[in-house]
Structures are given as structure tokens and as C-alpha cells.
């Protein structure tokens, strides 16, 4: 029979190397069990050297101890006289945690929490630039809420032990169906900037599209690219075409950049009031401008307006695409298509146009523009062949793994995140971006497995119920200027 | 003529045995009338020995007194000089009742109030485990709000003096159409745990389905089963099949357990952030883990995650059902079907599968999964024969008797409650669970009688207006993998 | 030329008999103009004897003075030295008006303000009884919001100088299309009780339906009836039929009561938690009941429950109607029909049943029962002949004159108010009820004239857009028990 | 090599004439660059004479400086010893800006902010008159929110360097598709009154419709009209026709007034409670009226009620139009049509009726009247020929440039603003109105260019998705009194 143990002796065994706990009056050595505990080792380590009965009891049925530990693990009975006063119940542990305390990245459970953590670390001006969207933020909010309108249709009795999250885009493999959309000025969030985002993408095996307005040069961003790491480069065509041509010359020399992403959804800047207002908040309380002879500012003009300086608003199918093809041999993708007609037109330029991004520019261009999901449903309804001719991806509003599987179920090859990556960068640099990708990866895998879908290509419209969205989709005539006979309900193929 | 009475004399008659009150200047002996008072005896007893005129007058028309009491009950006129100062009007009685004061169970009028009372008595951790649901709680909330979208169609001129609430499930009679769904870890709420729930179910003549993750053993839970009391036992198949087989061996020996409930809607754990967060709230403010050499926790993992350890995510129609049939002769019900296709497939295994539970796991698995009412309406629309081949029940979101009659009107045999029973247990142990069942029983009877429905089997879709829900039901092609020709609007029977 | 006037002289003319004001430096005698002022006389009287320029100027174009007053009204220029300091601008007049101050009845602009004023004057218990409705108040709120879902279609170029608000019910003329529905316990609001409501109805030429649970006897209520004043009497049939028969005997003798209103929508009491809770608030904080030997109260039971004691829940078409006809020769109307089928059945008893009230009992019976507007639209869709065979009226949720015209446009002869009258009574006795009827009368006239409708019988479905409501109307098969072949979309006439 | 510069020297160059900044340790002369800075000159001037590195760095990629400034602009390295303590980061600059501080007009970014600024400067009474609308403000709010229900359909690859915002109305050219609707009592906002609005309209090349209840005479308002400036004059026909005829006589003589706008949507005043309540707030706290012998006020009656005095509610197609034609030769437009039937009827009087304004009087007449967009969609659906026979414009609820392009896409020639102009006037007199027009002009241009629309006449229903609104449009029979056979779904042409 085992001898009685003093509490002081138990207190000596509080590490991974030797871990004792008291349960129901007995001392147990749980060192070997630590890696097998369903609830994880840490929850035991926290109670190491103490009486764990109060925490253990209500969540373990009788017999659990005996089923999982050999009798040899029982060191012996505790000497009750040596025990300290009982620990208070969990509900009495203390006040609510201080919301000012900075949580570790691992404690940020979803993209909203990452955004909140990032906001605390940023300048008001930087936050305003990232957060802002056009006018009343209607499209920004709709981008997200439209996913809430779609219901999942989980299937049972499907083996989903493994879930392969990989997908492809332009022939490149992505380990996860989530890429980073071009988003400007990453160094407003963190000194690691776009280079930092690249490191996180490398780790997660996915694509980063570099903003034309990156706060670092493309060369800096790709300099530590891993083998096989894929980048795209976003182009805002400049009115001074020479500037764009020079830039394309630099890009053409960078092997890691595999394609050019031509942005079309913002020929002129949208009105981002939060961004414009930050100008007033930060600057105009001073007398400085007047002293310097400057005129009164009118109508704001934050960072967003500044970045558009020089952007060419005259792009056309007939002029711009041939010009671009002349200056690069890399595949081209078109970003910012917002109706099925433009997707249909794009599908007639597959000599060099290989993909499209359905996007309303994160709600930052035309407010009340449709979310990408609307455009995707339009394409499915009126010209589904586009989905086979081009690689179609979407961005805007993605916050959950369920959003990802919904977009893929409708035919998207992958989804892009913009603000998500930037707020991750703000919250914790490279590790912050990694945390964002990790959250979305895990949520996507969980969503897919709960749907009974073992790999991304198995997702189909059968897995979701889009009825609430479909009744809001455009159902007027197709808008193909110059094409005769376009009628409601009758798709007329354009001659191109 | 009767003599004048002093107030001191009236004050002596303040009990059930002798109860006098003063009304309009006369003293009345209402002892015999107490059991017949429409408003109940207590309301009179409260005023016993006092002048009740101010409370009595505005709610009784003249003549009421004379109609209900014999003249002999009139003792005589009160002596006005002996009366104390008048009691203040009800509205002046005092401050709002203190919300911190614990109300008696009888004063909890609905399930929301029971939940609030239970929350006050629980640890934060336990509450978080019960309350939590997947991601943004969209499905959890939709489970309830979908009932609000359905309107009742009350009929008049129907004799509903009696209302028979009984129903059947798998041939067993239930006194009320409300059973307790499998829900884990009841001892987080109260030491009586699952055994306590069993005692309440016994009293109300209904079924308890015992969670695979109960905090007590099945033997403990059923040990005080009444004659004819029916239990089910929920199975999460373990990767180590031997463990499940041993458990089934134990269950097979328990006569009170009449069927096995195989859970299918959570092959992997959903992401329950409230639960995961509680881990940080309660634990990580200490330095303990780091001191013990533990790594930083990532992504939470509350009680919910722990319980899933060892659960097998590879179940299939072809492998798992035959295996299960080999290890038990008890009838099987499948829990967690969320689309009509799976219900249809289940209806082809009626050799041992006798029922199904339409459930999205209380919103705790895939967020934005449909509420059971959606699945039930899908079945009615596309494969109504399922309702005759199998006993179909639903759970998730039930808070009112009107919810119960709506589910039954659509063909459900009964409805399950999970959190409701647990919060009842937290609020008051066995009596708390009884109060929950009592509330739902009384509300269900009231709803049925107001509909003009004297017994549960009379409920039909004619009694409700589901139009607002029906327009959101899935209307794409049936998803029966391997079946040719599945088309929208045309149900193709699968060959099985 | 007129002489200069001193301010002291002007100050002497501040009454209706002699009213001077200063405008733009001149003193004007506006006594004769007072009754013609578009803005009313009072607004001038308030400024009588003072310099009114600051208030007058911004809302009168130049020339207004000269156009409206004869030169003889100009007394002469003011002596500026005699003027006091200028009055402050309106926006500086002082603090916000104190919300605690009791407003005069005339300052209560709509039914919500009357309700708020009434609430302040009532006991908590009385307010809870009036305010309460079943369960979650879903039907109570829907009763009102459904009117917001209907749009008006105003017509232009219609002469609507006169607007005749009169209507008829059972052959009786109502001066306004708004009657008082049976509502219990008016003396909880004010000592004038139901008699007080009768006085207001007399003044406005409309019908009062007396509640079976009135806090005064029918004889008291009708005792001051005007010539031609019309009452109805509501019957809750008692299980002890003799009691109802005796009561009918009394009613039959009262000539002013022209019809019997048989209530059918509350065979058992709904669950009115606000009412039941008030019992605890007011009573259970005392030790009295326990001291008196009373048991613990369970599940509340407020005033509402008490009133139902003895009500017969076994009424049927075949038994109850013949019984009632035997005991009265007065016309019968049926209250509480909530689906078109019951309205259809009622239209086959026109020998003595002359009208129906579409009502869900003010949301106080079955929660999520449909608003009367739903039932009315069902009738229009499936059995419009009911509207010609019976006089159909509605109640529940009426708060605005636009609500009144919408109900009438759909075929209702009139609309009833219940709580509105009671809260008016609470706010100001007879004058309070009058104010409620006055508000609704004026709003109804305004709505009708803005629609281009000079009399109530001109209102038709062409004047409103009900499309948003129609898509929620029940569209399943008709529910006529015992009738063969009832099918969705095909109305099958019942043989009766 | 350049010499080291002291901070004191840099400090001398802080003006447009000579502007130096320190970047990365070097002093640069950016005077010549000021006009070319994409972010505007002011943002540099603010930092003139200081170290700008902290603000500059995160938003400019490396190389930007070298690309944009010649080497000659580099004055030399700063002497670090002479630098003051570093400026704090933007996020630390100080507290939130004081919401009480009056912002410059240029800092007001949208119409809501202009309204808020205007409110602060107005009397409560004036604000209440402008802000108020009928009953519960349902139509007022719906007027705006209906635009949010419409989605844009932006097109890509369209040259939109130039965007021509001009439109026409009755043959007159408007530089912007936004005019000022007739709105009364502008001097409640600002002493410049309607004349001030006229000056802003002159500057922006658009039409002002002068209210019949303007606080200035028409002669005053138009007296500084520019060459070609166009005014309309709104007529409320008076019961004393002579008064209207005299007024028309004056209007006929004013050449700048090009048309008469006959108001039809308010034959009687709506119930504007905010306006009526302001009467009590400002006035009735005094004892003055009672002292003067005035009766108690009943039912309010604010400015709105006053203005309607004398208005004729008996207008008809057959009497009023001929009368009006007799008294003016100017073209007539009809204001306040709210259903397609009346628009259809109007299109049969094109001898002198040249246009219509779809309007519900800013929500100030019949509450729950439809927004103009409903009426416009009705016209498109049932009688689209009206759009070619008449110039159709809309008002009510316009707050954004996207609202403007949506109305124009559906066929409106222009849109009117009422409250917007008045609140602009309140916020800053003439400049305030200009700011409102400037905001809407710029937003409209941005919206059009983002749609890929280079001129207003290119806008068509193809550019918007109105599906969510269309399902709420009236679809009952046409309401043409006296016309036989009007049926749902079949438009029957009226014989006129």
C-alpha cells in the first residue's frame, strides 16, 4: 500500500518533465499522459502540483481516470492536513479580463479580432486608409453580409478524415484557396510591409498579388521568395504610359512574378470619407497651412486620392489590352469585373488573358456596386462557359472559412483577402499575417469537412443554398454595346 | 342587524382556516370561497385581515360580491375609527424589484428567464460551453428565428376543453411531445447531472437521450428509471472502434436504453469561440503554463474541442451502419441530417434505422447550416414518403410551445431540447429541469387549444402559414452522388 | 402723419379685445385680423403688446403685411427709446421642456404619446394588464407593422374639400369609421371606466362594444346613452350556461345594445407574461402569503388569467350558435376569426350572424397568429363573396389614420381600437378618449383627402399597394374539415 | 559636396514661395514640386521647415524621391544636433477633435454632415419645420433607403476621362442634373434666403424652382439672375382664385421664370409632428396665451399648417388646368404625381403640360406614400411612352451622387433637392448651398465614371439592378376612373 504524500512534495512536480496532480485525494503522476490528453497538455500543466479535482470532476465521467492511467501512475494518497485552502471556483477567479491588455496572436480567434488588435497598434491615419470604403460603406458591408445569406448543405456519412485544401490558379498550385489581393501601403501597418506579407505567403504556399502602390519596390518584396513561390503584380496604367512601360520592364525581369493583374474597377478614385476625414483630424487643427499661404482645403482627399494621381481613366478593350500585350509576355488577369457581360467579353481574349478577379475594389470604388458573389451567380446563370475558359477568383468581404467554401462551391478557384492581411500585419508583423492565413485555413478545412467535402474541387452548387441571393440577381437584358438583339432572358452571343 | 366589528378582530382571521377581508366597509368571511376564487386563493390570502377595497374595486364589476358570496358570509360593518392609515396604491409600493434577487423557479415564466437564472449560478467556463455555437452564431440564432417566420392559423368553434399532448417515437409513448436531446457535461450545471435530468423526464413521461459525453456513466443515469421510462444513448464512433464496441456492450445490457442515436452532424468539432475564449479568460492570465514549460496556446480549444478527441471522421453509409448493426440489436436513429437527400437515403435503411433527428447540432457545427425546419420543409417538398417510413424528430432553437406545434404540424413526431434542459438544471437541479418541461408543456397545450387542436396528431400543415420560409428552401437539383440525371424540379429516385 | 407711440402704450393692448403688435418699427392694431390669421390667433396673442419682428420676419415674404392689413391698422411708429432689450432668439429660449411635466391633452399628437401619458398615470399592475400580449408580443407588434408594409397610392386632381368619414355597421350609421372594441377592466385606467368611454363614443357618433369583463355593469355603462347611440355586448360563454343566459336576459332588455359580439379567439387564455409578472412585482415581495399558509405561486397568473375563470372552451358551430340564437334575438357578430375558412363558414349563418370581427385578440391569445390584414387579404383572394354577405370589421394594431384607410380600402366597414381607448381614458378620462378619437378622425380625414377620396365608400384596393403583404399570405389548401377535395389553388365550396 | 544645414535655416523656408523639408537626413527644396504633388500642396506646406520623414516614409516606396525631384533640389544634409525633439506619431497627436468646433464648409464631406452643421446654426423652430415629415416619417426615410435597394452595374474598359454631367429640362440646358425643388421659408435658415439659393444655382448652371411660400418675393429672388439662368415658379392654387391670378400676373412678367410648377401632392397639409411639436416647445411654456384670452391649443399646427391657409383642395383635371392655361402662357409642369395612372393622364395634356415631377412632397404629405422611384418604375412597366411625351424629373431622398445616376438611369431628366439646399443655406449661406451642389456634382461624376458612363444620356436601366425594388411595385389593375375594363396585367388605354 502506498504511503501518504505531503503537499510540499507534490509541489516539486510542476513541469513537463515531471508532472503530478491531486485528484479525489490521490496523487497521480501524469507526465507520460501529457501528450495524449484530449484537452491538450497545457490545461494539465496549469494545474500541476495542485489539487485539480474541482476543475476535473464536472467534465469527466466516473471511470475516466482508471481507463486512461495505469494503476502504477497512482503515487499514493495526499496528506489532507498539508493541503492549502481550496482554490476558489472558476467563476470567482476575478474581474473580467482587461480589454486594454494586448492578447497574444494565438488568442485572436477570428478576423474581426485581428482587425481590432491591428487597429490598436496603427496610427489613426493608417487605420482610416485601410478601413475606409466608398460613401456609406454599403458595398463594403454587403460584400460580407451576402455570404450570410447563403446557407450550407452539410452531408453526413462522408469520410472526411483528410481534407485537401489545395487549388490551382493559372496552372500554379496553391496550398490553400486563399491568396492576398493587391492592397496598397502595407508599411502603414508595420515596417515589414509587403515583404512581410510575402514571408507569410511563402509559409502557407499561396499567392501574393503586389499592389501597384506598394510601399516597397517589387524587387524588395520578392527578394526572399521561396522556390516555386508565386507573385502577381498589379498594374494601374499611368497616363504617362512611359512610366508604366518602364515599370513593366522591371517586372518582366522578376521571375517570381508570374502574371500581371490589370486593375479595372477604379478608373477614378472612389469617395472614401473615413480616409478623407482623417486628413482633417490629423492636420487641419493647426494653423500651419494658413501660415504657409495654402488655400483652404475643400472636399478632403486622403491617402486614397493621392495614390490615384496619374492613373489613366481612358482604358479600353481595343487600345489597352494590345498595348499591354506588347509590353509583357506574362499572362494577364483582369481585376474588378462586376457584371457578367464584362466577364463574357474577357472570355474572348484568352490568348493572353487567363483569369479574372470579380471584385468591387473592397467596396472602395462605386458604393452600392454588387458583391463578387452577385457577379459569380450572374455568370453561372447567363454565361457559365466563362468558368471553363478562364480561372475566376473573387475578393471582398471574406471573413470566415464558410465564406471560402461558398465562393468555391460557385466556381471560384480561390478567394482573395486584402484588409485581412493588412490588419494581420498591423497586429503582429509576419506572424500576424500568418495568424490570419492560419485562421482562414483552419476554418476552411472545418467547413469543408462538415460539408462532407474531402477536397476543394468536390465543392459544387449542390453544397449550398443560394436561393435568397438569386432572387436579387440582375435579370434585365444583357448589356453588350453594339450587339443587336440583346434581350431579357435571351443571351445573345456577341461577335468579337 | 349585525354588530360593528373592530379592525383588531379582523386581524385575527388571516389564515386559510379563517380568512376575513374588508370590502366597501363590510367585513366578509371568505374562507369557504378561497378555493373557488378565479384569481387563486393566494391573492386573497395576501389581503387577509385587511381592507381589500382598493385592490378589489377596479377589477370587479358591481354585483360580483353579491353573486359569489352568500349573505351569511357578511360578518358586519367595520368600525371605521379602528382602521389604520390606508395602504398606498400599488404603483407606489416601492422601487423596482432588485434584479439581483434570485427568483423562485415558479416565477421564471419562459425559457429565456430560465437561461438567465441558470447563467447566474454557473461558472463562466460552464456557461460558455453551453451557450457557445459555431463562428458567428448565425445558425444558432436562425434555429430560433425561423419559428418566428411561421404564422399560426387558429380555428374557432372547436371544442378544445381537453388537449392530449401525447405522441409516440419508435413505438414508445411520450406524455409530451418534447424530449431531451443528447447534450454533454450536465454536471457543469449542477451536481445532479444527467441523473437529475432523468428524474425530470420520468416525472413528465418523456425520453432522455444520453450524451456520449455525459459527465456520468449510463449506468448511473438510468439507475432510478421508472417503469416504462425510455432512454436513448448517443454514439460518437471512436477511431479506436474497440472503445465504441465496449461501450455498446455496456449499453446493450441496459434495458432502459431502447435505442442508439448515431450522431453524424459533427464529424469534426465546429469552432465555438465563446467556449474557446473561456479558456483564455479563466486560465491564461496566469504565468503557470510558461513556468511549467508549456508552449503558447494557439487558436483556443475549449471544452468542446477536448470532447472530440478520438472521434472518427470517416463514417460512411457502407461501412459504419453494418458495423453498428453487428454490435447492437437495438433500433438505430440517425442524428444530424441537414438535407432532404440524406433523409431520403436514410429511408432506405429501415431494417434497423427507425428514426432520424433533423438537427444542425444546435448551431455548434457548421455555421450557416440550415435549421431543422428547412430540412423538414425540403423533405415535405421532395420526398414526403420519408415521413411515413421513419419517425422524424427535430431539435434546435425550440423556446416556445408555439415552436413545438409548428414542428409537429410539419410532420415531426416530437421536438428535442438541449440547452434548455441544461440551463434548467443549472437554475434549480431536478426542479429546474421540471420547470422547463412544465413551461413548454403548458405553452404547447395553450398553443394547440388556441389553434383548435385537441390532440397532437390532428396538427397538420393546414394549421400554419410557412410561406415566408418556403421561399428560402433549397430548390436546386438533388445531390445524390452516383445517381444519373438528378435535375432541378425533377426528383430522381436513387437505386439503392 | 401718425404720432410716435411709446412702448408702455402698446403694452396695454394684449387681449383678444384689443391686440397691438410692433413690426418693423411700426405699431399695428391686428385685433380684427386675429380670426383670419392662417397660423391661428394664439400665435399672435402670444406676441401681443411686443415687438414681433424677429418671429414674423423669416416666415413672411415682403408685402404680406400690406396685402393683409388696411393702412388704417397702422397706429404709427414706435418710439425706439422706449423699447426694452430685444427678446432672445427662439433657439436660446431655454432648456428642453421637462419630460416629467404633464402635457395638456391637446399637446398629445398621436396614439403613442397618449399611451405614454396614460402609462404615467396608471398603476404598474393596470398598465401591465393593458400593455401585455402573448409570449414574445410578436403578433401584437406585427398587428401594427403590417400596416407599414402597405403603401398608399395618392391620386391628384381630385376635389377633396369635403371628406365624409361616415360608414355603416349592421345598418347603423357611424360618424367615423373607428369604433371601440371590447376591452376589459376600464376602471383600472380611470374611475369613469366604461361609462366614460361611452360618453366619448356618444360625442363622436360611434359604436362601443362592451366587454364581458367590464368593470361596470352594462346598465351603468349605457345609462346615459344618447338618442341613436349604438352599443354591442361581448359574450364569453360560461361553462355554467345559466350564468350566460341570465346575463343575456339582462342584455336583451337594454335597447341601446343592438347586437351580441361572441368572442371566439380566446377559448383559453393566452400567456401574457407582462401581466403575470406584475403579480410578482407587486405581491410576492411580501411574506404575507406564506404567513397565511398559501403555497408557492407557480407560473404567474395575472389579471388576464383570473378573468378567464369559468369561460367555456367547448364552443362549436353546431352547438353554440343554436344555443345563443335561442337566448337572444339581437343580431350576432363573431369576433376573432383568423383565417378565410372560418370567415367562409360564418357567411353560411347569415340568418342571425350579421358581421364578423377579424382579430387576433390584440395579440393576446396565440402569439404569431396573423394580423387581421392577413385574414382580410385571404378573404379577398379565396372567398371575396364573404365581404358582401357579412359586415366585416377588423381590430388590432391601429395607430394612424393611414391604417384606417388601408383597412377600409381592403373592404373593412370600420376598424376597432382597444388599448387606444383605454390609454386615452387613463391619460384624461372622458376627454382622453375623446382626444384619441379626435386624433384618429383627423388623421383619417387627412389620409383620405391626400388619397383623393372624398368618402369612405370610395376607398378600394386601387388606392393601396399591398404587394409586400400579399406574398406572405397563406397559399396552401383550404382547411375545411370534412369537405372532400380541398386543394391548393382550388377553392372548393363547402356544402353546409 | 553640399554643406551641412542647420535646422534654424530650414525653418525660414515655410511658404509657397520657398518651401524646404527634411527627408531621411537631407534638406530638399520642394518649392517647384508643390503644384505637382499628387497629394496636394497643402500636405507638404504643413510640414514645411520640418523633418517630414515620419509622415513621408510609410506611404512612399523607395525611389519615389529620386524619381520626382532633380538632384539639384537637394540642398544638403541636415545638422542632426540642431534638430528639435521628434514630433510625436500621428496617433498620439492629441484628443479626438472637438465635435463642438465648427468645421469649415470644405470639411463637410456629404449631405448628412451639411445637415448636421446647418442644424447647429438654426433655431429649433426652423429646423423642426425643415426636418419634419408626415406622421412616422416612413415615406421620408423610404425616399432615401429605396436608393440603397438599387445596385449599380459598373462596366470596365470604358474611356471616362471626361464626364459630361449636363442634361436638359423643357429645352433648357442644366450643367448638372440636380435642380433645387420648391421649398418654403428659406430665410428660416439664413437671411440670404431664396435669393441666396439663386446665386448658388447661377454658379452651377442649374434651375431653381421658387416656392409659392418663399420668404422673399419672386422679384427679389430673380433680380440678380445671370444670362440664361432658369427659374420655375411653384403655384399652390388659392381658394380665392383672384389672389393666384394676381400672382400669376406678376410671374408672367418675369422673364427669368420659364415655367409654372403646379403642386398637386398636398391639397391639404400632412401631419408634421416635429413641426407641430415645436410650437409647444417654444411657445406654450409661457402663460401668455391664457393671459391674452386665447383658447387652449389643440393638435398643434406648426409653420406647415399655417402656410396651407387658403390653399384650394378642389383642383381637378377638367377645371383647374384650363383655368391655369388661361392665366399664363408659360409651360406648366405638374408636381407630386405618385402613381403611373396620373402620369399617364398627364401625358394627354401636352399642349401646355411639358413635364412632371414625381414626388411625395418630401414625405411631408401622406405618410407611406411611395417614393418617386416606385412611380418611375411603375411608369416604365405600364406606360413607358410617358417618358418620351413629357420631361420627367423626381425629388425626395437624394443624398448621394449614386442616387442621381440611378434616377437618371430609369429615365428621369434630373433630380431635385429640397431640404439639402435649405440645410446648406443654414450651414453657410450662399457658400453652403454651393457646397451642397458641389458635393452632389462631384459624387455624380464619380459614380458615372465608375459606371463607365461618359455622359448623362448614356445612362440606361442596363446600368442598374432594380430587382429588389421591382418586386414591391404595385401590380394591381390600373385605376382610371370611368375607363372600362382596366385589368391587372393588361394596360387599357384611356380615351381622353
From TrEMBL, chains A, B, C, D:
The keyword Mitochondrion applies. It comes from Exophiala viscosa. In the C-terminal section; belongs to the FMN-dependent alpha-hydroxy acid dehydrogenase family. In the N-terminal section; belongs to the cytochrome b5 family. It comes from the Eukaryota. PANTHER family: CYTOCHROME B2, PUTATIVE (AFU_ORTHOLOGUE AFUA_1G07200)-RELATED, S -2-HYDROXY-ACID OXIDASE-RELATED. Pfam families: Cyt-b5, FMN_dh. GO terms for molecular function: heme binding; L-lactate dehydrogenase (cytochrome) activity; metal ion binding. Residues 2-79 form the Cytochrome b5 heme-binding domain. SMART domains: Cyt-b5 (SM01117). One of its GO terms (cellular component) is mitochondrial intermembrane space. Its cofactor is heme b; FMN. Residues 103-469 form the FMN hydroxy acid dehydrogenase domain. It is an enzyme of class 1 (oxidoreductase). InterPro entries: Aldolase_TIM, Cyt_B5-like_heme/steroid-bd, Cyt_B5-like_heme/steroid_sf, Cyt_B5_heme-BS, FMN-dep_DH, FMN_HAD, L-MDH/L-LDH_FMN-bd. Signal peptide: none annotated. This is L-lactate dehydrogenase (cytochrome). It is found in: Mitochondrion intermembrane space. It catalyses: (S)-lactate + 2 Fe(III)-[cytochrome c] = 2 Fe(II)-[cytochrome c] + pyruvate + 2 H(+).
Amino acid at each position: 500500500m502506498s504511503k501518504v504524500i505531503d503537499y510540499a512534495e507534490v509541489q516539486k512536480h510542476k513541469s513537463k518533465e515531471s508532472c503530478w496532480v491531486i485528484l479525489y485525494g490521490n496523487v497521480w503522476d501524469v507526465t507520460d499522459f501529457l501528450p495524449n490528453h484530449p484537452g491538450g497538455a497545457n490545461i494539465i500543466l496549469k494545474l500541476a502540483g495542485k489539487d485539480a479535482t474541482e476543475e476535473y470532476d464536472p467534465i469527466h465521467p466516473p471511470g475516466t481516470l482508471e481507463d486512461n492511467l495505469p494503476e502504477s501512475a497512482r503515487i499514493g494518497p495526499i496528506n489532507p492536513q498539508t493541503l492549502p485552502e481550496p482554490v476558489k471556483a472558476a467563476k470567482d477567479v476575478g474581474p473580467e479580463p482587461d480589454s486594454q491588455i494586448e492578447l497574444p496572436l494565438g488568442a485572436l480567434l477570428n478576423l474581426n479580432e485581428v482587425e481590432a488588435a491591428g487597429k490598436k497598434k496603427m496610427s489613426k491615419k493608417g487605420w482610416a486608409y485601410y478601413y475606409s470604403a466608398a460613401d456609406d460603406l454599403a458595398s463594403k458591408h454587403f460584400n460580407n453580409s451576402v455570404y450570410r445569406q447563403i446557407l450550407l448543405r452539410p452531408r453526413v456519412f462522408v469520410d472526411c478524415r483528410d481534407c485537401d485544401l489545395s487549388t490551382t490558379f493559372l496552372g500554379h498550385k496553391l496550398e490553400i484557396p486563399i491568396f492576398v489581393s493587391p492592397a496598397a501601403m502595407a508599411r502603414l501597418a508595420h515596417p515589414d510591409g509587403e515583404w512581410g506579407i510575402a514571408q507569410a505567403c511563402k509559409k502557407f504556399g499561396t499567392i501574393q498579388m503586389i499592389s501597384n502602390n506598394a510601399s516597397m519596390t517589387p524587387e524588395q518584396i520578392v527578394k526572399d521568395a521561396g522556390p516555386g513561390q508565386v507573385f502577381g503584380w498589379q498594374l494601374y496604367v499611368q497616363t504617362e504610359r512611359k512610366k508604366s512601360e518602364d515599370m513593366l520592364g522591371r517586372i518582366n525581369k522578376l521571375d517570381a512574378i508570374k502574371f500581371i493583374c490589370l486593375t479595372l474597377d477604379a478608373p477614378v478614385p472612389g469617395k472614401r470619407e473615413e480616409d478623407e476625414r482623417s486628413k482633417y483630424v490629423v492636420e487641419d487643427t493647426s494653423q500651419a497651412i494658413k501660415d504657409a499661404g495654402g488655400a483652404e482645403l475643400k472636399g478632403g482627399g486622403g491617402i486614397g486620392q493621392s495614390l490615384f494621381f496619374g492613373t489613366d481613366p481612358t482604358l479600353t478593350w481595343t487600345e489597352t489590352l494590345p498595348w499591354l500585350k506588347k509590353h509583357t509576355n506574362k499572362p494577364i488577369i483582369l481585376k474588378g469585373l462586376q457584371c457578367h457581360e464584362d466577364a463574357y467579353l474577357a472570355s474572348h481574349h484568352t490568348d493572353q488573358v487567363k483569369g479574372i478577379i470579380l471584385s468591387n475594389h473592397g467596396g472602395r470604388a462605386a458604393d452600392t456596386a454588387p458583391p463578387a458573389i452577385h457577379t459569380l451567380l450572374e455568370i453561372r446563370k447567363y454565361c457559365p462557359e466563362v468558368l471553363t475558359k478562364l480561372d475566376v477568383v473573387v475578393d471582398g468581404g471574406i471573413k470566415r472559412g464558410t465564406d471560402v467554401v461558398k465562393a468555391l462551391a460557385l466556381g471560384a478557384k480561390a478567394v482573395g483577402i486584402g484588409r485581412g492581411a493588412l490588419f494581420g500585419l498591423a497586429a503582429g508583423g509576419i506572424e500576424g499575417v500568418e495568424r490570419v492565413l492560419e485562421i482562414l485555413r483552419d476554418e476552411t478545412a472545418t467547413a469543408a469537412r462538415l460539408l462532407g467535402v474531402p477536397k476543394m474541387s468536390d465543392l459544387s452548387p449542390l453544397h449550398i443554398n443560394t436561393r435568397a441571393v438569386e432572387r436579387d440577381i440582375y435579370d434585365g437584358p444583357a448589356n453588350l454595346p453594339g450587339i443587336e438583339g440583346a434581350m431579357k432572358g435571351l443571351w445573345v452571343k456577341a461577335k468579337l
